[in-house]
Amino acid sequence: MHIARTGLGVAAATAVAALAVTAPGTAAPTAVPHTLAVPAVAGHTLVHGVSSPLTSEQCQTKWHINCYTPLQYRTAYDLNALYRKGVTGKGRTIVIVDSYGSPTVQHDLDVYSKQFGLPSTKVKVVKWGHVPAFDPKNSDMTGWAGETTLDVEMAHAVAPAAKIVVVETAVSETEGTTGLPEMMDAEKYMIDHGVGDVISQSFGATENTFPGFDKGDFSSIKKLRYAFQDANRKHVTVLAASGDGGATDLKLDGTTYYDKRVNSWPSSDPLVTSVGGTQLHLNDKGERLKPDSVYNDYGSGGGGQSHVFTRPSFQNGVKGKVGTRRGTPDVSMSAAVNGGAWIYSSYDPTAVGWDVSGGTSEATPLFAGIVALADQAAGHRVGNIQQALYGLYAHHAKANGIVDVNDGTNNSYEGVTGYKAVNGYDLATGVGTVDALKFVPALAKASRHG
């Protein structure tokens, strides 16, 4: 059993995903931020290389945690009735961006799907730049491979008929290179070429670590927003994990945490929907034994006020909670390690088998699947969902499938006091989580772009 600590384990060096195209002459902006983008899954694999998935009862006996299958998630998020209506993500494409990717992603998804009686799907891999050969002894590469595997299998679990494109970026571990410009270049290329309907980002860098931040100069972040601005124009939904450091996050060294409240980008960007984390309490059928709480075990759901972005208009209705700043997260899905997801991987020959993983990098592709379902139900991309999401929350939230998380748990972490899950919007879980049977058609209806 491998217990890793939050945000570590995957070398904190660079970041971005996989596709089968080599990008021609994509020069990064001249001022490359010396900031580390780390995958949100880093350090959140608790169980590693098990020969077959166990029941939650067996997991409790063996590891003192709950562990869930996609079949349990389908019940918990009320997805089965949508599938019976033919809403499966068919005709829609989820783009997942991760550094290096995984050489076994298709095989692993096939094994995962077969185990749970799901149809598999073809994963298109796009290589952005000259992606180096995969080295299973390189902890940076295996960390990103774990992230890629989790992203793909969770997105597929929710939207089984959606196409999946994995964009692998090629940034190597070089001093002062972050990977963020390459990731944004890759995303812009995908958007401009109409490749995907929703982009899932399970990585982030603390706002405070960007050059100029301490002097109040936020240009190094703002110069990286071009892909999101492009997505907004082309009605592509962009999601990002809110992080696994609660109300704090990692310093530039990638190992120690700030002793104050901080936030991370791209989650904090107003053009991005920030996905936070919950803990599910389910029986083996996937039925809730009690309401969801805040993810806070081997990590904690990221959330708080941005120090870079002021409050966007879509959050005016929750200004009592966010103040004058952009608040995160916007919405939350399953992320706790105690209640983690079974995933299958074989990229590391020394640990082939089933793992239990958590983190907001689990929550983000789960929600990407929800968006793909809404895209299909709408017959078009729902695009930037922020206005629609907060509108659904403000008017008949329950009828619109928004489920409040208000049990009083919090996202305090590493000695930094976080925020409580209270009635309505909060900086621990956003507007809450979703009942997909109600939320998917409501989101489809609320989107205006044909």
Low-confidence stretches: 1-30, 173-177
Helix content: 25-40%
Q: Say how many strands there are.
A: 19
Distance linking N and C termini: 49 Å
| Overall pLDDT level | 89
Shape: globular
Description:
This protein is α/β, with parallel strands linked by helices and 450 residues long. The N and C termini lie far apart (49 Å). It has twelve helices and 19 strands. It has helices at 56-63, 70-76, 80-84, 105-115, 139-158, 180-192, 219-222, 226-234, 319-322, 360-378, 386-394, 436-446; strands at residues 38-39, 45-50, 67-68, 93-99, 123-128, 163-169, 198-201, 203-206, 237-241, 264-265, 273-279, 293-294, 304-310, 325-328, 331-334, 340-345, 353-357, 402-403, 433-434. A hairpin with a 7-residue loop joins strand 16 and strand 17.
